[in-house]
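Regression report. Comparing outputs from two consecutive submissions.

Submission 1:
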Amino acid sequence: ELHSLVKSVGENDRVVFYFAGHGETETLGLEGGDMGFLIPADGDAEDLYLTAIPMDELKRISDWSKAKHMLFLVDACYGGLSLQTRGLGKEQTPEYLKKMTNQKGRQVITAGGKDEEVMEKAEWGHSAFTKNLISGLEDDLADANDDGIISGEELGTYIRNGVAIDTEGQHTPQKGRLGSDPGEFVFISQTLETQVGDNESQNSQLASVESELAEIKKMLLQSQNQTLPQNPAPIIKPSKTPKMKT
């Protein structure tokens, strides 16, 4: 599926990759270190190399893809192994955000660090990560500056803070980038889309009214020109006839 995704997207596309499931970490050979894996539904935790997806595969996929923006949302244990932490580090002004959305970007938000297991509760219906992901996007709660746009940076900050509260610090989501591309993934709120649509509709209606008024003015002028002759004949007053004496 990842291979098909890479082949199907174009250079102006934006891609959201969301994985919710099991994650596992294995210690590497003599040199030490860890390697993280995402375990799909048909994966085998006892045979990770052949049945799971290495975390660093996401980096290769992102390098291979032509998509302008990619956002990886990884709701799994030990998900922090998939990213290199580096945020925007600048105030998210409209001018800066406009510039960043024109740049290529690869961003990652994971449910926890490389040594952390993620928490879920029956009352949530899913994990703390997904709980805050949904509320952040569906209810626009991640829109920190209330501008109708939720950037990947805003979403990552909201999820991290929300999960830290819900789990009492048991695990902390991580946000960062794959590679050095500075571009920013953004979500446009439905409220903003509606407002923009209403404005466009109003502008269209106004343009239509102005066009109709212009036609009416044109018709009135034409009617006036047809009623009044261009070169009216002079009005000749009849001369007085002298009275005859009898």
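Submission 2:
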Amino acid sequence: SIWITRWDYKTAADVERAIRWSAGLGMNRVFFQVRGRADAFYRSSIEPWGEEIGGKDPGFDPPEAAIPAARATGVELHAWVNVMPGWKGSANPRDPAHVLYQHPEWFLVDRTGKRLLKNPADYTILNPCFPDVRAHITRVIEDIAARYPVDGIQLDYIRFVGLKPDGENDAPYDPRTLALF
């Protein structure tokens, strides 16, 4: 197995080349990243295009380029989804449709009451305790599964990340999560 990240392609030719290269290495399964930080690397009506591919439709649909390349080389293609990351970095997302703008209340809150929206060193995480967050993520994954004949879907980052060992930034500690608990 091999992972093709969202940084590994900008064009359909890049996608096809990465699949052929993977097959040439003897890989029989490719995990092809289609979601990074609550953004899409496919034509989604649910989330905005990922900034790593330009933040807009690049003129091709990455999974639509990857699937025939995988079939032609006998490689299984699995859509790789970063599940819980909502953002990463100190700058805001460029697209106003991004979940950070549409639902900042979905992000974790630490022990001090600070909402964790931006972190230059690690992903900030959507709060999986909230039913509306789980429904959104389920909708994204169902959309991918319904529209693309992939061999599987790899769910990654189903965890809290970036917490300090001293517990200072432990999360979630917002009233809604505590009430659900």
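Expected: both submissions complete independently.
Actual: both completed, but the second showed a warning that disappeared on reload.
Relevant detail on submission 2: The chain has five helices and six strands.
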